[in-house]
Amino acid sequence: MRNIRGMLIAAAAAALLPLAAAQAVQAQDFPTRPIHIVIAFPPGGPTDFVGRLVAERMKAALGQSVIIDNKPGANGTLGGEFVAKSDADGYALFLTTAGAVTVSPHIMPDIHFDALRDFAPVALVTTVTEVLVVTPKFGITTVKELVALAKAKPGTIPFASTGIGSPPHLAQELLAASAGIQFLHVPYRGAAPALTDLLGGQVQVLSADIPVLIAQIRAGNLLPIGAAADKRDAILPEVPTLAEQGYPNTDASNWYGLLAPAKTPAAVIAKLNQAVNAALNDPQTRDKLVQSGATPVGGTPEAFGTFMKAEYEKWGRVVRERGIKDTQ
Q1: How many alpha carbons fall within 13 Å on the CB side of residue 272?
Q2: What does residue 159 show for φ and ψ, rounded to 5 degrees?
Q3: pLDDT, mean of residues 106-132
Q4: Of 37, 54, 112, 179, which residue has the fewest beta carbons closer than 10 angstroms?
């Protein structure tokens, strides 16, 4: 019986050898054609900016074109589904935000991928601070003043976000929980319409990625009153964190990371990871990212995988505790 079992194991191992050899050859030659990075948001947004900037530098490292494909919809999950179902050969990648793979799976019952099972981590590209802003004419200059107003008028202060379950929405929820208050959540389908309505006075407060807001902040059209992060952002060092202002457990930092379909050969993942790190270490690329409000990260696929799992578990707890549901 033991001999039969040993023969079966040996036969199975032998059957895998040609596949392993084929994958090794594939990885050695990779890439032989253009690579496509799916961004699940429209052109012109912060994720698109970061993706195009990094893709251009990856092209130099890989010797092939790296093309951006914008596939917006459902808080990033449509783009994620497309890549999850693509061939696991390294030619279709997903530049995701935190919301699409660590929040939406907890609030969207009909999502068509498993965020931890259906992707292979490539690299954490950037982290991005969430900042609360108001317009100068609102008359609020600190988070304490905003909280006091929300306590006086519970559930009536229109607080915009870029969508249910997005990091800007989570920043709002964490502040509300920490301060014991309630806002009127006004979700938008992206940063641009939310920003437009804030500037037009239709909503009073907005939390969003720094790259979305920095131009209007510099122009004096928006007043940043707090950072939903564990430390002040280098590009806005004068803006205190929410925790510094007395509201702990309010870190809702966003991040952008590169994923490949699960079962993509490890050697292909390694080549892609090297290309991302080369792009992030390029001085001009780093400077452009930093000036936009994005912090370059990089590192190993394993480190990104560990980080993403921790984020998945963290936001799952927040979604359950706050009762966040997809109503869009």
Answers
A1: 34
A2: -115, 110
A3: 94
A4: 112
The SS3 of residue 149 is helix
Taking phi over 0 as left and psi of -120 to 50 as alpha, with beta for the rest, 97 belongs to beta
Q: What is the SS3 assignment for 127? A: strand
Same domain, 116 and 175: no
Has residue 247 been placed in a domain? Answer: no
Q: Which pair of tokens denotes residue 223?
A: 């007043």
**DSSP helix/strand/coil, 234:** coil
CB 7, CB 39: distance < 8 Å:
no
Looking only at the bridges linking them, the beta strands covering 158-161 and 184-187 are: parallel
- Tell whether the model's pLDDT for residue 175 goes beyond 60: yes
**Cβ atoms within 10 Å, residue 163:** 22
CA distances from residue 34 to 83, 133, 234 in whole angstroms, order as listed = 15, 40, 35
Contact 187, 104 (CB under 8 A): no
Q: H-helix or E-strand containing 11? A: helix 2-29
Measured CA distances, 253 to 89, 109, 113, 157, 170 (Å): 31, 24, 23, 23, 9
Query: 184-241: per-residue pLDDT in tens?
Result: 999 987 788 899 999 999 999 999 999 989 999 999 999 999 999 999 999 999 999 9
Question: What span, in angstroms and rounded, lies between the C-alpha atoms of 259 and 72?
Answer: 17
Amino acid letter at 222?
Answer: L
Whether omega before 109 lies within 30 degrees of 0, making that bond cis, reads no
Residue after which a domain boundary falls, among 211, 228, 245: 228
The model's confidence at residue 3, banded by pLDDT at 50, 70 and 90, is low
Quick: pLDDT tens for 120-171.
999 999 999 999 999 999 999 999 999 999 999 999 999 999 888 889 999 9
DSSP H helices in 63-166: 77-84, 98, 104-107, 143-152
Q: Which of 228, 263, 290 is the last residue of a domain?
A: 228
What is the pTM assigned to this prediction?
0.86
**Residues 124 and 140 both lie in one domain:** no
